[in-house]
Write a structure and sequence with these properties.
2 domains; three-stranded antiparallel β-sheet; 7 helices; elongated
């Protein structure tokens, strides 16, 4: 294993932990001529490589090329070996992270407490449910805002089983069955 400075070691180990082994951003306090000197030396030794930055993915820039594009720094396999990390392990972990990020794992949103949305959910959970007029009286919202919250926020986003039925004297009454 080659002798590395603390800065070089920090750049390589931090880059190995990031997606796609991107070495940017550099450690805090390393900028200007000092950054250029360290990075140039690491590129010359084959530990870092300059590649086109994909700004759509939010990759940080190392430098701009002048034609509206930029480059970023990536830790190479030699750079990983320089800090004692097997490139195969890093690639396997990157593949696992990529799989987990793209897996269809449903995220269950949870309503915040102490909000008007939480007040409306409490009203709907009552045995008698709640009409739009009753919810208007509690929240001060307009009727269309309440219907939008029930349809979009509670049913679609939170996946709550809200039912509705027409009742004489109350209009449409919404209920949320608690299991």
């Amino acid at each position: 294993m080659p002798n590395l400075t603390k800065t070089q070691s920090l750049i390589l180990t931090t880059g190995a932990q990031r997606a796609d082994n991107i070495a940017m951003p550099l450690p805090e306090g390393l900028h200007g001529a000092a950054a250029k000197k360290v990075v140039t030396m690491m590129i010359d030794r084959g530990w870092l490589e300059e590649v086109d930055a994909d700004t759509r993915k939010g990759e940080p820039l190392w430098r701009e090329t002048g034609d509206g594009h930029g480059t970023t720094l990536v830790v190479t396999d030699a750079g990983l070996l320089a800090v004692g990390i097997e490139p195969v392990v890093v690639k396997t972990m990157a593949a696992v992270r990529q799989y987990v990020a793209t897996a269809d794992v449903p995220k269950t949103p949870t309503p915040r407490t102490g909000t008007k949305q939480a007040q409306i959910i409490a009203l709907l959970q009552r045995p008698e449910g709640a009409s739009v007029a009753e919810i208007v009286a509690v929240t001060g919202w307009l009727a269309h805002s309440i219907r939008g919250l029930i349809s979009g926020g509670l049913k679609k986003k939170l996946g709550l089983p809200v039912t509705s039925e027409k009742q004489d004297g109350r209009g449409t009454v919404y209920k949320l069955d608690v299991a």
